[in-house]
Amino acid sequence: MGSNLFPTQEIGSLPKAPWLLSYLRSKNLDQADFDHLEKWSETSKFEGKQEALNILSQPKTKEKEQRLRELASLFGIRFLESSGLDIVYDGESNRIEMYEHAIRNANGFEFYGRVRSFDNRYYRKAACVQKVGFRVPYHLNEFKYVAKHAKKEVKVPITGPYTLAEWSFNEYYQQKRMGKGNDLRTIKQEAKREFLLDIANELLRPNMDSLVQAGARWIQIDEPALATRPEDVPLFVEAFNECTRGVNCKLSVHICYSNYQSLYPHILDLKNCSQFALEFANRDTSRQSAYEQLRLMKDSGDTREIGLGVVDVHVNTIEEPKVVMERILEAAKFIDPAKIYVNPDCGLRTRPWNVTYSKLRNMVAGADLARKSLGD
Amino acid sequence: MYEVHLTGNFPRPEPLIDVSRQFDRGRTGENDLEEQLTSSTRALIELQITNGLDMLVDGQLSWQDLFRPLSELFYGIEAGTLTRWFDNNTFYRVPIVHGKVRRSEVAVAKYYRHDLMPTSRRCKAIMPGPYTFAKLSENTAYASFADLVDDLAHSLADLSRELIESGCKFIQFNEPSLCTATAEELKIAKHGFELLAKNSAKTMVQTYFGDVSRIIDELLDFPVTCIGVDLYANDIDTISKYSFSHELSCGCVDGRNSLIEPPEQIVELMTKVRNEIEPHQLYLGPNCDLEFLPYPVAEKKVNLLGDVRRRLNGQ
């Protein structure tokens, strides 16, 4: 066993820096904002603290806002690096969120208003009203900045075609079919396929090409919506293969809160995917080990890497390094240890900063324990 | 005569969303929330009247999901963890059944605003059906699933009686889970509906998000006045092979897509349904709740239904 076992990675989002949010919303910064910047600058060895403080103390301008956004990105990079991770990004510090950021920078979509997610929580859902099109390489500047400043390996998380389609209304492609027969179910499904493939071909592949041309070596395609309709897994596979066709870098896919059984055997047909980063910790209980589900990969003869979710992103409880180690070793019963990467279940954006940091630190420590227990 | 109705929760208008969120954060009081709820409900009733809808609903604008108010209106139930609502990017709180289910003392008017309806108009109340309610609950109290369905049916029947006394002419029971029920479960569900049938109102079993072709033989034996089918989840040619002695409600306007369907195509589809199935009475409406849409889009869907109704009835 070598010391390169169990590389540690993040999945995507961090919480937004409160001082950045206050500035963007033109709110007066309070002491908590300054305390946050102070505390985490020191912990993360963030070199931009003084410059950030200067900007925060001055009237807002477009240039200053742009610079503060860059500093927030650097803050995210250093935060992740200082937690000990091997593979980092910037915590998606300048994306509105994973859906809206992509859709607002694409052609063909219009936002009509909010729809309920649950209780009194709502999200903005867009409608596709014209053929999907590429407008700008919406992750390019962000990636260039991260690549220039990161001291660790960089992985770019992007939102996948199935999630963008599933979280949007599909007007344009369905409208084209209305009136061609009375089977509304078939009309809707055919329209969905065309919508999905256009997102893959017209929007995502150009974006990924631009990232690769700028030097990206690893892109992670996030598909949280894949849990929604198990019967659509073949559609997802088709779209994934389309959007990654000819994209020359390492490609992985992140899926969470899903019935993994429904993924097989279809995802064996993913042509250009070398890693599945999956959520497990959330479903790991004292009664039932979640990691036994990796038997699915083993039994299917799937030899790809696994990004192993060992930290639950929905609770504030900090997993002890020993727990992390045990989860890794449990997974190693089913997967070649050399193929195991270690990560949180999903993005950590909903956790407080101190919880996020402690979880990542313990995850890194747990991976180290697992390495040692295997004789390294 | 084609009749038109809404079939589920209506989305909240933006001002109500804002007040609800402010209320959650303690930034506004209950009176403000109540005032906004009442004015929004009145506006929705007016929208239905303007468009000539035949049976009015209150839109259930205070409901967080299909089950939440029932954890207050019934004893024995509390709201649990968030879970995905079928194949939607929307979540509900799983009802936890922790004791014997029975109607509580909480006034029905807290969650059903039929007091705001003009007395001259027919109105409809919507609630979960006993099978879906039990199926999507976490049962920690009942020894058998059938017992739970029966007690839920008894409690829903009590609730229905109160709503009928307050002027409702039609009670709709939402049963999306029926489409995937086993043969044994269908028998249990049917028994639940037999318990519900003992009242004076018309009753409707509303299916959605699922294909009814597998269960349609059993469904046609349910003791209800009307059967609701989601035409975005079914092939109308399959349904047309069956003889309907029930009234039929067709979900022909998609509550899960913002596309405003061309009215002439809905007219053509409904004419085909009328000619081929010849139901005793044909209703049309959205295939499910409209709350999956932003409010302005849901308003347009109601306008579309009004337009289709006028065209179908030759007005």
Describe the structure.
The complex is a heterodimer of chains A (376) and B (315). Chain A has one domain (18-373): Alpha-Beta Barrel (TIM Barrel), CATH 3.20.20. In chain A, the strands form three sheets. In chain A, strands 5-7-8-9-10-11 form a six-stranded parallel β-sheet. Chain A has a three-stranded mixed β-sheet with strand order 2-3-6. In chain A, strands 1-4 form a two-stranded parallel ribbon. The model of chain A has no long low-confidence stretch (mean pLDDT 95). Chain A has 376 residues and is of the alpha/beta class. Chain A is 41% helix and 17% strand. In chain A, α2 (31-44) crosses α4. The longest helix of chain A is centred in the middle third of the chain and has 30 residues, at 184-213. In chain A, 44% of the residues are buried. Chain A starts with 17 loop residues before the first helix and ends with a helix. By secondary structure, chain B is α/β, with parallel strands linked by helices. Chain B has a single domain (2-13, 52-312), classed as TIM Barrel (Alpha-Beta Barrel). In chain B, 37% of the residues lie in helices and 21% in strands. Chain B is built from ten helices and eleven strands. In chain B, the strands form two sheets. An eight-stranded parallel β-sheet of chain B has the order 1-11-10-9-8-7-5-2. In chain B, strands 3-4-6 form a three-stranded mixed β-sheet. Chain B is globular. Chains A and B meet through β2, β3, β6 and α9 of A and α1, β4, α9 and α10 of B.
Q: Strand arrangement, largest sheet of chain A? A: 5-7-8-9-10-11
Biggest sheet character of chain A: 6 strands, parallel
As a percent range, the share of strand residues of chain B is 15-25%
Content of β-strand of chain A: 15-25%
Low-confidence stretches of chain A: none
CATH topology descriptor of chain B = TIM Barrel
Using the alpha-carbon principal axes, give the shape of chain B: globular
CATH architecture of chain A: Alpha-Beta Barrel
CATH topology of chain A: TIM Barrel
Q: Give the helix level of chain A as a range of percent.
A: 40-55%
> How many separate domains of chain A?
1
Largest sheet of chain B: 8 strands, parallel
Distance between the termini of chain A: 6 Å
- Please trace the helix and strand order of chain B, writing H or E for each element: EHHEHEEEHEHEHEHEHEHEH
List the total number of helices of chain A. 13
Q: What oligomeric arrangement do these chains adopt?
A: heterodimer
Helix tally of chain B? 10
Taken together, the total number of domains of chain B comes to: 1
Q: Class of chain A, according to the CATH hierarchy?
A: Alpha Beta
The amount of helix of chain B comes to 25-40%
CATH class of chain B: Alpha Beta
